[in-house]
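Re: the request from the purification team.
They wanted to know what the chain is likely to look like in 3D before they choose a buffer screen. I agreed to run a prediction and write the result into the notebook, where they can find it.
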Amino acid sequence: MGGLAALAREAGHKVTGCDAGVYPPMSDQLRALGIELIEGFKANQLALKPDMFVIGNVVSRARLSDGTAKFPLMEAILDAGLPYTSGPQWLAEHVLQGRHVIAIAGTHGKTTTTAMTSWVLEAAGLEPGFLVGGVPLNFGVSARLGQGKTFVIEADEYDTAFFDKRSKFVHYRPRTAVLNNLEFDHADIFDDLAAIERQFHHLVRTVPGSGRIVVNGLEESLTRVLHMGCWSEVRSFGAAVSDFTAQGEASDFEVLQQGQVVGQVTWSLTGIHNQLNALAAIAAAEHVEVPPEVSAQALGSFENVKRRMELRGTVTSASGNITVYDDFAHHPTAIRTTVDGLRRTLKAGERMLAVFEPRSNTMKLGTMKAQLPWSLEHADLAFCHSGGLDWDAAEALAPMAGRALVLDNIEALVAQVSLAARGGDHILCMSNGSFGGIHTKLLQALQQK
């Protein structure tokens, strides 16, 4: 929604927005664009008299325990019969129409792959528009209209709005659709993996015959999606028999197309997941006539996205540096992938301390709690913030024995992590929220120590 607001502002509209607990980097970006942020959803905002209310999917018709509306502004809009629409619908009608849309879908890696693809097209001189669910460091903004024909968009399978329960991505009508991976997530709105696969097939149905589906050849779930029917060209990546494959280390690898070397990627990113993201971006860019060699070279200067293994600070101690990272990982698979990626970069004797909070709707429900020991397997120590959970995080992490500690408030968590930390440690903080500003608090506590 923040990126959408930025696009509307760039298009010449006067834009205001409201939300509860807005936090950086998006809050900083919006204020820098001159977009007023209002805390809360009070009905008095009707006095602003906008031409259109664009409703995000956080808004519902929910009631509080005292019977009052959780979102009184929405109730006031409905009572007054004022015009409203969803974010994806507004994008489809006012931004995406007439563009060559490249939609990046998948349970994991959407934000990073969208940023990669946007940067590749920029480096190739295509001046793309883009909407990313984070802030790409190469651009410094999460969205722009762009001057070219192409528009790259992060395509989320979560539902659109309380009045439109279709996945967001069915609104985008892509000519190029990337299916990066697919596993169960969003337990608050999907009953099982099959329900999500059906939504992904709805996306496949919208791609024209002259379009392209870029699919991860390693994912059985995506194979099932395509077997439901596909009417477009398919290009695969990742598997040994795929159209696009990689050869070499995750930070320095050759790109192969149909078994022939077509480029080399050398960059600072870690993890096989980012190597796969790169292959997806290269295959998508080729559909708009960017040669793989050009794409691979451009990825060498890709700087990642804020909150994707973002270095937040280093504290120097007599026994060595202690480094603090921030990452958006919150699904167990994403946590494991992030932990493994960092583990591969550590030197002998260095430790990794994983600090995380189960904050997504799926994790709050406890649907995937049994996977947490697996996801944290390669961390030396794990610290879990359990505040607000209705399930026993200590019980879920019991298989980790003495390597896991559960605390229900941020201050206690910071105290225990800083107590355990020693020179040479890498502290990886993972959450899809602000995590109570834990990164700054940790750095301060470590500095004092």
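For the purification team: Residues 345 and 371 are 24 Å apart (CA to CA).
Please add any questions underneath this entry.
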